[in-house]
Amino acid sequence: MLLECGDDDVVLTKTYHMIDDDEPILEKAIGTEIDWYPGKSLTQKVLKKEPKKGSKNTKPITKTEDCESFFNFFNPPQLSDDDDDLDKETVSYYLS
């Protein structure tokens, strides 16, 4: 995938490493780490909340949360080391 951003061309990749060719079991996935400009990340949203009236703290409260974005695709999935962590519904989802 090639994204043109002004004068710079950025290539984003995601590579999957499988344990076995016969049975596709994901060992790990590696994606391009995106170096966002400060405050410009499309994978996080900044929430600002004004303090309540009469509060001693007059500064707005700022909180950063992850949000859904196309660019989250390049973050590696969290793989469990323990097979007991997967429930039957999750296993059937990935096997179907």
From TrEMBL:
GO terms for molecular function: histone binding. GO terms for cellular component: nucleus. Keywords: Chaperone. It comes from the Eukaryota. GO terms for biological process: double-strand break repair via homologous recombination; nucleosome assembly. The keyword Phosphoprotein does not apply. The keyword Chaperone applies. InterPro entries: NAP-like_sf, NAP_family. Belongs to the nucleosome assembly protein (NAP) family. This is Uncharacterized protein. It comes from Papaver atlanticum.
